[in-house]
Structure formats: structure tokens, C-alpha cells
Amino acid sequence: MTAVPRVVVSAPSSGHGKTAVAVGLLAALAARGLRAAGFKIGPDHTDAAYLGLAAGRPGRNLDPRLVGSARVAPLFAHGASGADVAVLEGTMGLFDSLTGRSDSHSTAGVAATLRAPVILVVDVGAMGQSVAALVHGFRAYDEVLWLGGVILNRVASDRHEQLLREALDDIGVPVFGALRRRDLPAALPSRHDGVVPVVHRSVEAARGVRRLGEGIAGAVDLDRLVALARSAPQLGVEPWTARGESPAVAVGRRPVVALAGGPTISYSYVETAELLTAARAHVVPVDPLRDEHLPEGTDALVIGGGLPESYAEELAANRRLCAEVAELAQAGRPVIAEGAGVLWLAREFDGRPMCGVVDATGMSTDQIVVGYREATARASTPVAQLGARMVGYKQHRGVLNPRAGQTPAWTWGGSTPEGFVWRRVHASQLMLHWAGAPEIAHRLVAAAAPVDAPTPVPALSSTADTAQLPAQPGPPAQESQPPVSPSGEVQQ
Length: 492
Known about the structure:
The strands form four sheets. This protein has a seven-stranded parallel beta sheet, sandwiched between helices. The protein has a six-stranded mixed beta sheet with strand order 9-8-10-11-20-19, sandwiched between helices. The protein has helices at 18-31, 45-55, 64-67, 69-79, 102-105, 107-113, 130-141, 158-170, 196-199, 203-219, 222-230, 242-245, 270-278, 312-317, 319-330, 340-345, 439-447, 462-466; strands spanning 6-10, 36-41, 60-62, 85-89, 118-123, 147-155, 175-180, 256-260, 282-286, 298-303, 335-338, 348-349, 352-353, 361-363, 368-377, 389-396, 399-401, 410-411, 420-422, 425-428, 489-490. It is α/β, with parallel strands linked by helices and 492 residues long. The chain is 32% helix and 20% strand. The protein contains 18 helices and 21 strands. Helix 1 (18-31) runs parallel beside helix 2 (45-55), helix 1 packs across helix 10 (203-219) and helix 7 crosses helix 8.
């Protein structure tokens, strides 16, 4: 059972300011001395990182599509353990979902699963009494939804605020705060920087979070909001545990698994390190942008999908680390790369030399590939058995040429295969949430077992073992352009 006070911050659509409000709320609550916990509904690494920075503890992702609906509440209970209050930031609009399954995969669906009240952030910069019709529509659309109230954003004046409050009072919806246009400045670093400012604890990131917290503290009734959060009932679930999902592997010396990121946050979801530790790995951070060497005694390397694509120059400049990563792969040690981590393993990206582990070149494009994929493993690797089916997420602008190696990592739908399997390298732009497939940690630790350990390393498929890495990069193959959806998103 868990009774952590909680509130979900959502909006009618993207662009209303819910991220700034959620981050500011956590910063303001933490400044009051409350132990806060931040969650991002959906797969977004960047928002989760800033929620964690504001709360002072790791921000976590709750994504029903990636981990399964049944794990959402236990994962929340685990991540909120010991907290006085939890703030969950929604994804897109309140009832929107990339899967088209609003009943369980949308923000409203997760709020219902967690029996949490929802605060709707509404940009009222060009709105008057119509705010009441909009909010009433959201409240009436789903009778299960617990709409606790609204926070008004971009209010123009005192008179404007009074008009809006009167309109909402007429339909019985509480207003928890009214933010002037100057109260929520664009204070956070560019999203192109991804989680790097948080990983490096940059002054800009800390200052941005503090400014948002000050803006919220001056315009939102925090006492009333905390009272709403405390009205959420108990959840009849047991907290998720990494040890229960990934029992320790019977190895001799604990294998050293280098996890790309920093000392307090990685480019992987938080549960990745927890699962690896429970499986008896010694997890050590390695920063691809700053560290020139892998941790001493590294037996395996994991590069999570949160590594941004916008740091090609810094990645290319770190030649010593690139060489050690290539040597690790050449030695047959496990290397798992997702998202932009695959671009780092390529021969080059945007004309800059990378690690040269996979026989491909990468380049940036103006279009974004985004969406969930139901993927089937094309080889037995430290990630999955041949034929295993997993759900992953893609979000990238960089593309690889060719799209797959001699032994691909995945295939889905009617698309061409994707990713690269070579020896114990598994590299793909498909990102997985390991809490949805906890066996990955067990497989990786078994494959990373030191050579003097009694447990043998699982053999990979013969095609993966016999694929050869070229000594010199060859000319990139021609690749047809993937189709583009009406929204401008590339479908791969």
C-alpha cells in the first residue's frame, strides 16, 4: 500500500506551459522543505531530468506502453517512496496518446490508474470567458477523470484574471494560481541540449529551475495544492523492486558495467542501474563528453537513449574514449547502445569521426522520427533472444546509412530491419525501458561475467559472431527516404 500525496499536471495540448509549471512546482515545494518526487508520463528523458533536478531526487518515467499498464502504479510507489508529495507531468494533451489508446496510455489514463487529481494548465493569453467552456469540456469528457482545478498561464492583467476566475467559478472549478506572462520565463536550457545540463549540473540548468520555482511560489497557492494532493486515496499496490525483477546472477567477481551519464543521472531510465545492481553488476558512470577512459576493469558498456544528438563535435573530440570503446567491442565484451548512442558507435556522424564500432555513417536531418514500435529480435544478444518481441520508442533526427548491419537488431511491421549486432554489440535507435523487460539486466550481467567466473557467457547467434567489422570505412550505401506522415514525422 502507498499513500503518497500526488497530483498530475496536464494541459489541453502541448505548448500551454505544463513542463515549466511542473518543474516550478517541484522546485517551490522542495524549497519549502518538502521531500518531493517528480515523474514524467511518457518516454521523454529531458523532462524527467529537469523534474528530478527540481525535486532533488531522480526523475522517473511512467510509460504504460513501454512497461505495461500493470507496472505503472508499482513503479510510481517505488519512485515516490519516502516522499511527502509527488508531481507527475503529463504528455501532450490530457487525453492524447501516440498509441491512440487514450483509455490507458494517455495522461488521463495514468491519472486514473494512480487515482490522482489533475491540475489543468491553460494558456489564457488569448482567452476570456471561453476558458470555462474549454475546462468544462475536459471535465465532462471522461466521468472517471478527477479534475482538481486549473492553473492559468499568461494572464494579461488583474482585470483579465478576475474575468477568468469568475468564469471558472460559475462552473465550480477551483483556480490554484494565475501566472502573468513574466512569471514563467523561458529559463531552462534549450531542449537540443537534452539532459546534458542536468548531467553536468550546469549553472544555467540550476538557475532556470530556481527561477521557475520562484515564479510558481509567488503565483500559486501551494498550501491548497498540497491539500489537494493529500486527498488522493491509498493505492493498493506493492512497490516495484529491482531485486524482485532481476535476481542476482551467479557469477564470481561482480562485472563492472559502465553506464553512460554522470554520477547522479545517466542517459538511461533510472531503473536500468537499479536492475543491473540487483543482478549483481557493479555499475560505474562514464561521461562520453568528458571522461577520456572507461572505468577500470570495464566488462560491459550501456549507452542509454537519453544521450542527445547535438553533441557530435564533443563526442568526436574524445578520441581516447572512442578508441577504448572500440577495443571493448573488438574484445567481445557486451556493448548496448540506444538512440544517439548508435550514432556515437558509427564510423562518423555529420562528417566527424566516431568510435567506428558499427559499419555505418550518420547524418542529421530536418525531420524527426518518433513513435512506439513493436519489435522482434533478429538475433540472440545480451538484450533479447532471437524472436523475442519487445515494445520500444524512437525519437531521433539523425539517420544511419545503412539502416542495419549484416545481422540486424530488430524488425517491425512492414519496415526494413534496423540496428546492428556484431559479436556482443547490440546497437539500435530503438529505446527500451528495462523495467518493461527486466530480463535484459540478467542477460547482460551473464554475458559480462569476467572470464574467470564459473558461469559461462551465453553464446550469441552464429551470424552475430562471424560478422566482421571493416578496418577502413567504406562508401555509404544509398538509402531510400522513409515516408513522412501529415504531421511531418518520419515513419520508420
